[in-house]
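Private note to self, pasted from the team thread so I don't lose it. Backbone tokens:
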């Protein structure tokens, strides 16, 4: 960027722009050399089969570390993992405050206790309608409807311009367990013309026309499905969707059924909701130990595992190895969720196992049993008309979502639309301009207890091992080139057939290489190592069609 001493308002996406999840954005204000920064959200995404052993992926905060003295704090919009899941891994090192609503703060504390995390952060509770200052920034929390309690948009005000960072949101006039989006406040933002506004907006559903259905519609459908079921009803949903659980409990009570919960995360989150007064007037939620004592037509089971997690309750029930709970032919299983991309196969496998047992499986293909927590195109247009942004920056989405959102913004008459990606630097005000790839970004992997860069992770080697197996050869030779010990052989991950095993092939290859080399040549450990390595790889490749990973250890004695 051109050097200047004037105040500028900057947005730098570090994660979540060009991908789903791993949301993290930085806002800077001031002259270039003394810019102060706030950070919004610090989330994760989940490792897939292409990253063996990697549990979580988070944005690399190197850009912020280089400016640590000027970073003022972290504001969390809500407590979904893709927005707050990396806080305890990344933020303690900054020693700067974290601002969160009551529910998000309680979720963070429960995560720390449940996972045995030693590191902690300085938490400050924020509330809608009570602005607070962080250096040159004034931040106001605005309640928005979403699929978890106390989701927030942020109005960030500076002397030269304002930002409305939506977080995850939708326009739901009848949410369950949470207040609706504060439409009147959004309209007032648009009426304020004292400084221009930049809209940093969720793009997750930018491909979907119309408006998202209300949570109340799902509640009505679930109530009917529970009331008409002749036998047991089981429901799996996202544990964080407190409103959905409330709907299920109300429906069960109306149908004269008791509710049993199974799943650690479900118990933890509903315990938080009860402590914060969100479950007032609801009957008690029973632990799974009560399952067998309740008549079959008087129970509703709520369980975890809607994404096909192998150790979660519904997967164990489907396999028949849950210690307490079982379903039988004639029972009804409702998937009040949909599969996150990448989890489809695991979810379908569980559904098939249940169907084979005679369980009636109901999904979104059968009725409105789940709704998105994100806005569709009609809701986006409505928001544009209320807040009247001078600048739109689509975030929270892959390239296809961001492109569709940008096109919608231009069609709606927004004067400036910036199609940013992680690492771009966007000057919002004055004179909006984007500087592509201005900032070094990247990913960090959480590999069990180790936080590392992709290069440090060893994932590349794991992929090679998963594809080609491993052959290990060890032998000792003396100064005359005589083999005095070995060769010892370990083979892992190569096929063994009745016709001829690759173990035999490798053993024959080693014998052939040793015989082909004069004894003096064999005394050269590097030459012998190289000959065995090449011989084994080439022979196995000729027979198998793949080159194995080969490690040869030649010891001189």
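Design output:
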């Amino acid at each position: 960027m051109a050097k200047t001493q004037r105040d500028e308002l900057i947005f730098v996406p570090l994660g979540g722009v060009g991908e789903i999840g791993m949301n993290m954005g930085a806002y800077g204000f001031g002259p270039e050399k003394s810019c102060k920064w706030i950070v919004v959200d610090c989330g994760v995404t989940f490792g897939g089969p292409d990253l063996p052993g990697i549990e979580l992926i988070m944005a690399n905060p190197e850009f912020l570390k280089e400016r640590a003295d000027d970073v003022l704090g972290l504001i969390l919009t809500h407590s979904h993992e893709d927005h707050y899941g990396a806080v305890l891994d990344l933020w303690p090192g900054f020693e700067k405050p974290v601002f969160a609503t009551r529910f998000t703060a309680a979720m963070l504390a429960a995560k720390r206790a449940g996972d045995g995390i030693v590191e902690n952060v300085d938490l400050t509770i924020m509330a809608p309608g009570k602005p607070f200052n962080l250096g040159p920034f004034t931040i106001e929390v605005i309640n928005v409807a979403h699929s978890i309690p106390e989701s927030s948009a942020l109005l960030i005000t500076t002397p030269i311009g304002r930002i409305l960072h939506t977080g995850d949101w939708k326009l739901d006039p009848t949410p369950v367990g949470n207040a609706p989006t504060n439409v009147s406040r959004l309209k007032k933002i648009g009426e304020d013309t004292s400084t221009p506004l930049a809209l940093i907006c969720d793009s997750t559903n930018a491909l979907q026309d119309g408006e998202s259905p209300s949570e109340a519609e799902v509640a009505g459908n679930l109530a009917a499905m529970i009331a008409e079921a002749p036998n047991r009803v089981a429901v799996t949903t996202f544990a964080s969707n407190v409103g959905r659980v409330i709907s299920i409990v109300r429906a069960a009570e109306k149908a004269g059924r008791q509710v049993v919960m199974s799943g650690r995360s479900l118990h933890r989150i509903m315990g938080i909701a009860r402590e914060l007064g969100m479950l007032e007037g609801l009957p008690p939620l029973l632990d799974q130990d009560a399952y067998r004592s309740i008549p079959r037509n008087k129970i509703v089971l709520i369980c975890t595992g809607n994404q096909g997690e192998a150790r979660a309750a519904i997967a164990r029930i489907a396999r028949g190895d849950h210690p307490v709970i079982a379903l039988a032919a004639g029972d009804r299983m409702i998937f009040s969720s949909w599969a996150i991309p990448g989890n489809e196969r695991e979810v379908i496998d569980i559904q098939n196992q249940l169907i084979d047992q005679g369980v009636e499986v109901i999904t979104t293909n059968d009725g409105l049993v789940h709704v998105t927590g994100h806005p569709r195109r009609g809701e986006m247009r409505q928001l544009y008309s209320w807040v009247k942004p001078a600048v739109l920056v689509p975030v929270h989405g892959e390239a296809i979502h961001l492109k569709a959102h940008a096109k919608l913004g231009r069609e709606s008459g927004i004067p400036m639309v910036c199609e940013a990606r992680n690492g771009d630097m966007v000057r919002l005000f004055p004179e909006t301009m984007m500087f592509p790839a201005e900032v070094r970004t990247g990913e960090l992997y959480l590999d069990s207890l180790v936080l590392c860069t992709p290069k440090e992770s060893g994932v590349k080697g794991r992929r090679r091992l998963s594809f080609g197996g491993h052959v290990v050869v060890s032998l000792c030779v003396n100064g005359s080139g005589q083999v005095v010990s070995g060769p010892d052989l370990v083979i892992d991950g190569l096929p063994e057939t009745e016709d001829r095993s690759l173990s035999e092939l490798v053993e024959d290859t080693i014998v052939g290489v040793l015989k082909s080399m004069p004894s003096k040549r064999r005394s050269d450990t590097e030459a012998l190592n190289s000959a065995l390595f090449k011989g084994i790889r080439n022979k196995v490749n000729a027979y198998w069609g793949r080159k194995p990973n080969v490690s040869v250890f030649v010891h001189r004695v």
